């Protein structure tokens, strides 16, 4: 009897402990519509299941408007590497970060543990300014994002922090060169920038076909010559008759 009670107590305590320390990042982010794109990509890249199976952990969530600029043109494996940089393998809520009080701390991310990071790519540098603002950026980079607010926290298990922009690094797709965002397409050229030869004006309906003028003039000349020749024949005959008469009279 005592052994059965002990076994029951063990399973009860284990169940209560597991329930109190388990979480589901998908369900957590489902309660915040502004992180729906970030949440969907965690599922597509299978990072959600990785987060659910690790603790303590901190997720740096990015809002939909930022994700809209991050995703286009990038392969899914590149997006996975970038998002894994937003998963810190330790527990940090706002209170813990601000307790740094003007100091900096190096954070290890899931990307570093993947073995795919080069140099300091898998580490983040968190700095607390004197005014209390918390800035986070890739180690060795001057570009930083700011912690906006705490989304949720389960002390020493999981913390979700909203950051103002994505933390970017230069990563390469699987079996490919480092990814570079595609250039923006050039705007269509302005028609005013081009010179066109104007097409010839259509002939006037009253104008003559090419060459008609000279031919007509020639015809007139020929016609005039013919008339002149015809009109001159009677005068020539009359002169011939007069000449003959005068010749006989002499």
TrEMBL record:
The keyword Flavoprotein does not apply. InterPro entries: FAS1_dom_sf, FAS1_domain, Plant_FLA. GO terms for cellular component: plasma membrane; side of membrane. It is found in: Cell membrane. Residues 172-226 are annotated as: Disordered. It comes from the Eukaryota. Residues 175-189 have a biased composition (Pro residues). It is a lipid-anchor; GPI-anchor. Its main location: membrane. The keyword Lipoprotein applies. Pfam families: Fasciclin. Residues 1-22 form the signal peptide. SUPFAM superfamilies: FAS1 domain. Residues 22-168 form the FAS1 domain. Keywords: Cell membrane, Glycoprotein, GPI-anchor, Lipoprotein, Membrane, Proteoglycan, Signal. May be a cell surface adhesion protein. Belongs to the fasciclin-like AGP family. This is Fasciclin-like arabinogalactan protein 14. It comes from Cardamine amara subsp. amara.
């Amino acid at each position: 009897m005592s052994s059965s009670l002990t076994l029951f107590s063990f399973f009860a305590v284990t169940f209560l402990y597991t329930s109190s320390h388990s979480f589901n990042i998908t369900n957590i982010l489902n309660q915040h519509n502004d992180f729906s794109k970030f949440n969907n990509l965690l599922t597509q890249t299978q990072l959600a299941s990785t987060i659910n199976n690790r603790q303590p952990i901190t997720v740096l969530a990015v809002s939909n408007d930022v994700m809209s600029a991050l995703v286009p043109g990038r392969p899914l494996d590149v997006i996975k590497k970038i998002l894994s940089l937003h998963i810190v393998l330790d527990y940090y809520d706002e209170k813990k970060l601000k307790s740094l009080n003007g100091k900096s701390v190096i954070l290890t991310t899931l990307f570093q543990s993947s073995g795919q990071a080069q140099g300091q790519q898998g580490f983040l540098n968190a700095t607390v300014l004197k005014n209390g603002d918390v800035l986070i950026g890739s180690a060795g980079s001057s570009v930083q994002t700011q912690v906006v607010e705490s989304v949720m926290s389960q002390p020493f298990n999981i913390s979700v922090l909203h950051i103002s922009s994505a933390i970017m690094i230069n990563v390469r797709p699987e079996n490919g060169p480092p990814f570079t965002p595609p250039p923006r397409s050039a705007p269509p050229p302005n028609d005013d920038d081009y010179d066109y030869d104007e097409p010839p004006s259509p002939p006037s309906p009253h104008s003559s076909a090419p060459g008609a003028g000279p031919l007509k003039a020639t015809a007139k000349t020929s016609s005039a010559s013919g008339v002149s020749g015809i009109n001159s024949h009677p005068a020539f005959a009359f002169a011939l008759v007069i000449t003959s008469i005068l010749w006989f009279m002499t």
